Amino acid sequence: MIRVEAVSKKFGKLQVLQQVDLTCNSGECIALIGPNGCGKTTLIKSILNMVIPDSGRILVNEKDISGDYLYRSNIGYMPQIGRYPENMNVGQVIETIQTLRGADKAVDTDLYDAYQMSQLLSKRMNTLSGGTRQKVSAVLAFMFNPGILILDEPTAGLDPLAAEILKEKIMAEMQRKKLVMITSHLLSELEDIVSEVVFMQDGSVAFHKSNAALKADTGKDSIAKAISHILREQAS
Ligand SMILES: Nc1ncnc2c1ncn2[C@@H]1O[C@H](COP(=O)(O)OP(=O)(O)OP(=O)(O)O)[C@@H](O)[C@H]1O
C-alpha cells in the first residue's frame, strides 16, 4: 500500500507538486495520467525516495519512507528511460542487479523467457535499440517478485507483441494482489488493465476514480473519451 499525504515539491521557483494526497492499495492497477510536466514522474520519484519532498510524507506499507531505503527492495521500478552502465552487456547488468538484490531472492523469469533475454545476454547496453532497452528494464522491474510495481511509460518503444506480453504480465501480477502504478500517455493501452485512474493537473490530483466510475460519471466508454470530456467541460 502507498499513502501520499500532503506532499509538495518545488524545483527552484517551480511548484511541481502541490499538496498531493493519494492512497493506492494492493491489487489495484493505477493509471497516473495528466499533461506533460504536471508532476507524474516527480511524484513517482518521491515515492522511490529519488526526489525528496519539501513537505508532507509518504508511507509504503504503513511505514514512513523518509530516510529509509530498505523498503525499495519491495518495489519494482521501470523508469521512463533506463540508464545502465553502457559498457556492460545485458547479462552483466542482470547479474549485477541480481547480486545487489541478494542471490537468494526468488526470481521471476516470466518476462526474461517471454522476451528471449537469453539470446541478448552478450549484447552491450550501448548497442541496444530503444525497445530492447525497455525490455531489459521490464525484466529487471519484475524479476525480484516485488509487491509494488511502478512503471513509467512502460510500453514506450515496445513493439505490439512486446507491449501485449507486458500487459499480460501486469494483469497476472494484479491477480496476485500486487499494487501496480503506471504512467502513460497511451490511454488506449491502459484500458483493459487499469482499475483506478488518477488524473494530475498542475502538480495536484484533479481526481481519483475507479475506471468504472470515471466512465459511468462521464457517460463515455473509454478512459481517453472520459478525460477529454472532463477537460472540455473544465474549459467551457
Ligand atoms: N530535477 C529537476 N530540476 C528542475 N525541474 C525539474 C526537475 N525534474 C522535473 N522538473 C520539472 O518539473 C515539472 C514536472 O516534471 P515531471 O517530469 O514530473 O512531469 P511529468 O508529468 O512526468 O511529465 P511527462 O508527461 O512529460 O513525462 C516539469 O516542468 C519539469 O521540467
TrEMBL record:
- One Pfam family hit: ABC_tran
Against SMART domains, the record matches this protein to: AAA (SM00382)
Does the entry feature the keyword Transport, yes or no? yes
Could you tell me the keywords of this UniProt record? ATP-binding, Nucleotide-binding, Transport
CDD domains cross-referenced by the UniProt entry: ABC_DR_subfamily_A
Instruction: Output the Gene Ontology terms for molecular function.
Output: ATP binding; ATP hydrolysis activity
Q: Where is the ABC transporter domain?
A: 2-227
Task: List the protein's name.
Answer: ATP-binding cassette domain-containing protein
In which organism is this protein found? Answer: Phnomibacter ginsenosidimutans
